[in-house]
Design goal:
The chain has helices at residues 26-41, 128-141, 153-156; strands spanning 47-49, 59-62, 74-93, 100-115, 121-127, 157-159. With 164 residues, it is α+β, with helices and mostly antiparallel strands. Strands 1, 2, 3, 4, 5 and 6 form a six-stranded antiparallel beta sheet that branches.
Length: 164
């Protein structure tokens, strides 16, 4: 998996629902390490899901610590959003759509449950950019892309500017 790179739309894996992780072993740790490495290689990467590197497993990483120092990297295995509040329309990007950003609604408050890389269950309430990123990555694991939330592609999808 050392040569893993970001899959871009319209790669069919991005539309595939992922399989739940049932074995928490060395191969999962390798997948997590690869996801972190690929995400860090992207200048704007604050989250990544396994399908974005061609793996149909329910694993994602969220790390918004550069934007919100109170947060830490989350390794999300089999995450499920339990509750969402505070919808907000905002501009969003996705590494699988490197040339575009879009205006869409996400939630600034989410309560979710997941397993960590050891299989332990965790639950958290996230707010702000972390909540938005969790929602984005959980969507990836269900085969839902950020463009699916765009009301009008003509008015709400924008070429990514070099200043992003």
């Amino acid at each position: 998996m050392k040569s893993a790179s970001i899959r871009t739309f319209p790669d069919p894996i991005l539309r595939k629902k992922t399989q739940a992780v049932t074995v928490f072993d060395r191969s999962l740790l390798k997948l997590v390490a690869t996801l972190v490495r690929v995400m860090k290689s992207q200048s704007h990467g604050i989250g990544i899901a396994a399908p974005q590197i061609g793996v149909a497993k329910s694993v994602a990483i969220v790390d918004v610590s550069k934007r919100d120092p109170k947060t830490k990297r989350l390794i999300l295995v089999n995450p499920v959003i339990l509750e969402k509040k505070e919808p907000e329309a905002r501009k969003e990007g996705c590494m699988s759509f490197p040339d575009y950003t879009a205006f869409l609604k996400r939630h600034r408050w989410v309560r979710f449950r997941w397993q960590n890389e050891r299989g332990e269950f965790c639950e958290k309430i996230s707010t702000g950019i972390e909540a938005i990123c969790v929602e984005h990555e959980v969507d990836h694991l269900k085969g839902v892309l950020f463009i699916d939330h765009v009301t009008c592609l003509k008015t709400d999808l924008f070429p990514r500017s070099s200043s992003h």
